[in-house]
Amino acid sequence: MTLNSLGIVDNLVIVELGPKVSKVVVMVGFHERGIEEELRPGIVMVAEIMATVIAPEDFSPAEDAETLKKAFQGLYSILSHGWGTDEKAVISILGYRNLSQRRLIREAYREIYREDLFSELQSEFSGHLEKALTHWILDPVDHVALLVHSELRKLNPNHGVIAEIACIRSPEDLLAVKRAYRSRYRRSMEEDVASLTSGNARKILVALASPFRFDGDEISEQTAVSEASILHEEIHGIDRNLEETVRILSTRSKAQLNATFNHYRDIYNTSITKVI
Fold it and tell me: Where, by residue number, does Ca(2+) bind (predicted)?
């Protein structure tokens, strides 16, 4: 079984098992020896149960919503485990549906019970499992908006995460994330970035979050090498005014930035998001 990594969020690795299989979130810890599962006893390993599963074409969002509600109430697990949310039942629904199907389930749940499935999952679960389950029912842009919002409010935020989100997405994708952020939090992403960061981090992140960057496929390797050097000199320089850094990050296309970042890593043996 091959796991293709789609991304990492905190301790969650998002993987895809195949073109016809739902995306899966595996809760893991990172160790020098490799990947080590951190699932509580009684929870079937998500990657294992998803290995041969194809999301059904014929399904009922209303029936799935009812199953989830009963699972939250503990009606499936009471006979064998006592009161409490039936975690396996929840995973058996959300883990066996694709994104569009989970969207319909969330809509059906809201219509039938006048409650938001996302909020229910947050209240019923915690830790890695809560993050995995809530990720399953969010649209990708909503998940990125949530990630930015959460990262900005950490005691020691990783600004590289936010910079990477802004740099590697197309202008259209970034605009969709900003719209999702405003819809979810009733504030603009640029406003929060400006108010919750300071110093050089603010200069860079506000510039990244604000413009509608040119989106072309053309790449100049010569420019990429030159600007990788400029970024390194400014970021590690004495005065660190970052004027050129802001210009590069806020105006270059996604393709050009990727080329520059690749050269930066090759030349200086580190990712630029680690030094911003």
Answer: 72, 82, 84, 124
The model's pLDDT over 189-215, given as tens digits with 9 standing for 90+, comes to: 988 998 999 888 888 888 888 766 667
Domain region containing 96: 4-138
Would the annotation count 7 as a binding residue? no
Q: Which of 135, 213, 146 is nearest to 174 (CA)?
A: 213
Beta bridge partners of 13: 8, 26
Domain boundary residue, one of 100, 118, 138 = 138
> Is 214 a known ligand-binding residue?
no
Name the domain count of the chain: 2
Triad 126, 273, 199: Cα angle to 5°: 95
Residue 82 among known ligand-binding residues: yes
Does 124 count as an annotated binding residue?
A: yes
| 220 and 126 inside one domain | no
Each residue of 73-84: pLDDT tens digit?
875 544 445 456
